[in-house]
Amino acid sequence: MTSSHTAKRQEKQQHPDLPPTAWAVLGLLSFPGERTGYELKKWADSSLRFFYWSPAISQIYAELRRLEDIGYASSARSGPEEARAKRRYSITGAGRAALSRWAADTADAGPPVLKHGLLLRVWLGHLAEPARLRAMVEAHLERTRGELAAVREAVEQAAGVPEWDFPAVALRWSERQHLAELELGEALLADLGRLSARVEATGRQAGGDAPTPG
Fold first, then answer.
1. What angle is formed at CA 201 by the lines to CA 196 and CA 203, rounded to 5 degrees?
2. What is the pTM of this model?
3. Distance CA 41, CA 47 (A)
4. Residue ranges in the chain whose pLDDT is less than 70
5. To which H or E segment does residue 114 belong?
6. Helices (H), the chain
7. Residue 65 in contact with residue 18, Cβ under 8 Å?
8. How many whole angstroms separate alpha carbon 131 and alpha carbon 10?
9. Burial, 121: exposed, middle or buried (Cβ in 10 Å; 0-12, 13-18, 19+)?
10. What is the pLDDT, as a whole number, of residue 6?
11. Exposed e or buried b for every residue in 130-147, given b needs 16+ CB within 10 A?
């Protein structure tokens, strides 16, 4: 490795400008064991996606390359005992120290980002059939029940494993969030039912100016 490359790596280590996804991938590596990119993706799908999001496999590998480049992660290929060679990744001492600083940062993490595709369609309900809107809400409720079951399975798997105590706390929050989403969905369905009855009684959809001040 040339001196210029070493200096560049040291500069990156001292002044990392990493996106949240990179910290999330590094966080997956902070737990015991070495993992392949595919294994990291599976773990993200069974944990991170319930309260943050699950990066695509291409994003995971891109972040792993970035983390290796700045010395926060390392990798090694499996030995000849495996039928297909696999590259396994692990966190380095520098990576663990940087992740600890980032996790303990008292700066505002920012507000939660809500992009509710179903609500966007409800917002445009004056252009849709009421029955179709209700069907979409019912499908959303069914999907949420499935997600809740998956969250509860993840909580059960994390139970009693000391290394997963804090992930279990995040997963229990996600369980409560899914329960709240079910409650909100049922209330939304009731609201649409009342609105549909009113539309049928008057024979017209809601109209007029947008319900905003000013």
1. 85
2. 0.78
3. 10
4. 1-16, 79-85, 203-214
5. none
6. 3-14, 20-29, 37-45, 57-69, 93-103, 117-123, 130-158, 165-202
7. no
8. 60
9. middle
10. 55
11. beebeebbeebbeebeeb
